[in-house]
TrEMBL record:
Major protein kinase C substrate of platelets. Keywords: Acetylation, Phosphoprotein, Repeat. One of its GO terms (biological process) is intracellular signal transduction. This is Pleckstrin. The keyword Magnesium does not apply. The lineage of its organism: Eukaryota, Metazoa, Chordata, Craniata, Vertebrata. GO terms for cellular component: plasma membrane. InterPro entries: DEP_dom, PH-like_dom_sf, PH_domain, Pleckstrin, PLEK_DEP, WH-like_DNA-bd_sf, WH_DNA-bd_sf. It comes from the Eukaryota.
Amino acid sequence: MEPKQIREGYLVKRGSVFNTWKPMWVVLLEDGIEFYKKKSDNSPKGMIPLKGSTLTSPCQDFGKRMFVFKITTTKQQDHFFQAAFLEERDAWVRDIKKAIKCIEGGQKFARKSTRRSIRLPETIDLGALYLSMKDTEKGIKELNLEKDKKIFNHCFTGNCVIDWLVSNQSVRNRQEGLMIASSLLNEGYLQPAGDMSKSAVDGTAENPFLDNPDAFYYFPDSGFFCEENSSDDDVILKEEFRGVIIKQGCLLKQGHRRKNWKVRKFILREDPAYLHYYDPAGAEDPLGAIHLRGCVVTSVESNSNGRKSEEENLFEIITADEVHYFLQAASAKERTEWIKAIQVASRTGK
C-alpha cells in the first residue's frame, strides 16, 4: 500500500554536497519526505526517512536566513529547508512532527476528527459558522495587535472569539464556546498566531483553544502576517513597499527573454498595489516588481509562447503599460486565490 501524501509545496532546500540553497518541490508522506527538482518530475531527487528522525524549528544556523527548519535522520544527516514565510514553516513543522509521532506510536497519520473527539453536535455546521465569523459587518473584527515587540496584522484574540460566539447566540455559554472554537481550530478554520496560542495547539491540553486576551488567532485566508516592531524612525521605505502585505508564497514565473520558468517568491501588497518577486533562496532585494493598479489578471489554459499545453494552473497579469506576465500556481485552488487577491489589490491600491 502506497504511503499517504500529507502535504506538498515549494520549499528551499540546502544541498548536501555543495551547500547551495535551491527551490524544490517537496512532498511529505506518512513515512518520509520526497523532494523533486520540478513538480512535473516523475522521480524524486532524494528521500528523507522520518522514522527515528528529529526536527528542529526554528533553526538559527544560518544567520539572517529566516523560516528555516532542520530534520536530522538516525544516521545523523542534517537536512535544511526554508519556507517562504512564518505560517508556511509552522504548517510544515506541525505536520512533520505529527508524522514522526505517528511512526513512533505505530499509528496512521490522520487529521483530528473533532466531531468524534469533542462530541460536536451534528447540528453545528462549522463551515457556515466560519462564514458568519468572517462577515465584514457582523463578524469578528480583525485587528493589528502588538505583543513582545511584534505586530500581528489581521488577527483577533481568543476571548473575542468566545465573546462573539456567545453574543451571536451560537453557543449557550463560554464553556460550550470553547468547545466550538477548538473544533474550528482543529478543522483549520482558525489558525494560531503567537507563542501562547501555538503552544496550546502543540500541547496535550484538553482544549487547544485559549479563551484569553493574550492568545492571538487569524483566519487562514485573511492576509495575516507578523512583523518585528522596530524602534528606528529613520528608516524610509520606497513608496511601493509601504503597502500592507495581503498574500505571499512561491509561484513559477516565465522569463521575458528566454521564456524559461523559475520558482520565485511573490509578495503581494495593496495601497499601493505591487507584486514583488524574489529569489526564494534568500535574496533580500526583489528581482522585480509588477505595478498592479489598473491591471488585468486572468486564468489561461495554455501559453503557446514557451509553455507546454499540458501544464496547468497558469494565469496571466497584463499591466496598465501592457506588459504580460505568465505565472503558474501549484493547484487550481491556489491559482484562484492569487487571482482574487490580485484583483482586489488592483482595484483598491494606488
